[in-house]
Design a protein that fits this description.
Elements (H helix, E strand, L loop, with lengths): L11 E5 L1 H10 L7 E5 L6 H10 L5 H10 L5 H7 L13 H12 L3 H11 L5 E4 L7 E4 L5 E3 L1 H5 L7 E4 L7 H9 L2 E4 L4 H5 L6 H8 L5 E4 L8 H4 L3 H12 L7 E4 L12 E4 L3 E2 L2 E5 L1 H15 L1
Parallel strand pairs: 1-2, 1-7, 2-3, 7-8, 8-9, 9-10
Antiparallel strand pairs: 4-5, 4-6, 11-12
Helix pairs in contact: 1-3, 1-13, 5-6, 8-10
Length: 303
């Protein structure tokens, strides 16, 4: 379809973790309510991990990070939501946004209601949906059969695990599945490959929804080398194959956008766009305008 742009689409769905997904959604925020983010909820580190340890529930950090990047109008509510406690006390290091989401979760029938309440409070039009409303952790099994539990420990692995799975079989959030079914375009990434992107693709009904989609799926690769040694050593081809094996369909990812530092390698029958995407003064972060332009460029080539 000639000259098709993001503005022509009725529903765009992006999948990922906090920093990467937040950046994609802020780049596409002009789509308003036509934009939906499906957020990883398996984090067990930092403020999120501490709240989960004491109170249970899903991890809120990635959702908070996305909301922070989508705030267009500064307000007292947004200042509170972005506030982080410092010092040495019990609250040191906690993000007030995580605590607000957890408190609202306790007051709500379900976690998605807490997200929607905060969205309205912060005047965020795009939808954000936790990948699952059931608390789960990421598990990795090493080549020697050792079980590694939790995102923090998985990120420390020096070698790629032999297997990755979730700590329990849980359903994806119904609204997330509906968003994928209604989507005109699906975007995966950028983000920590093993701990932000792969957890989403370990949810059976979510991968089933992706497997059956007829719309283009674009993978946005990271701009910098990952901190995780195991993930940093993966080639672009390996990452695409791992994602497609998890989804259960070959060549389901048909568009790939990479920065200049990546060697595309032998990725056949995919449309690969390579261009400078880094934001000035923000190493390894995508520039919002350049990212949107890259998506607008690749879109007509996929339809």
């Amino acid at each position: 379809m000639h000259n098709l742009t993001l503005a022509d689409l009725d529903q765009v769905v992006a999948l990922g973790g906090g920093h990467g997904l937040g950046r994609v959604m802020s780049a596409l925020s002009s789509l308003g309510s036509r934009l939906t983010g499906i957020v990883t909820t398996t984090d067990n580190g930092g403020s999120s991990g501490r709240i989960r340890q004491s109170e249970g529930g899903i991890a809120w950090g990635d959702t908070r990070n996305c909301l922070n990047q989508l705030i267009a109008e500064p307000s007292i509510a947004s200042a509170m939501f972005k506030y982080r406690f410092d010092g040495q006390g019990e609250l040191a290091g906690h993000h007030l946004g995580n605590l607000m989401l957890k408190a609202l979760d306790n007051l709500s029938q379900r976690p998605l209601e807490a997200v929607n309440f905060i969205r309205h409070l912060l005047k965020v039009n795009a939808s954000l949906i936790p990948m699952s409303e059931h608390p789960i952790d990421l598990l990795a099994i090493t080549a020697r059969g050792k079980k590694i539990s939790g995102e923090v420990a998985v990120d420390r692995l020096r070698e790629l695990p032999a297997q990755m799975k979730l700590s329990a079989v849980v359903p994806a959030t119904h609204e997330a599945l509906q968003a994928i079914a209604d989507a005109d375009l699906i975007i995966i990434g950028p983000g920590s490959f093993l701990t932000s992107l792969m957890p989403l693709l370990l949810l059976d009904d979510l991968t089933q929804a992706l497997r059956h989609t007829s719309v283009p799926i674009i993978y946005l690769d990271n701009l910098g080398r990952e901190l995780s040694i195991a993930a940093a050593n993966l080639s672009l081809r390996q990452k695409v194959i791992m994602m497609e094996q998890a989804i259960g369909r070959e060549k389901v990812i048909n568009g790939i956008i990479i920065g200049p530092g990546v060697t595309p390698g032998s990725i056949s029958e995919r449309i690969v766009i390579q261009r400078p995407l880094e934001a000035v003064g923000e190493q390894h972060y995508h520039d919002r305008d350049l990212l949107r332009q890259a998506l607008d460029f690749i879109l007509p080539l996929l339809y």
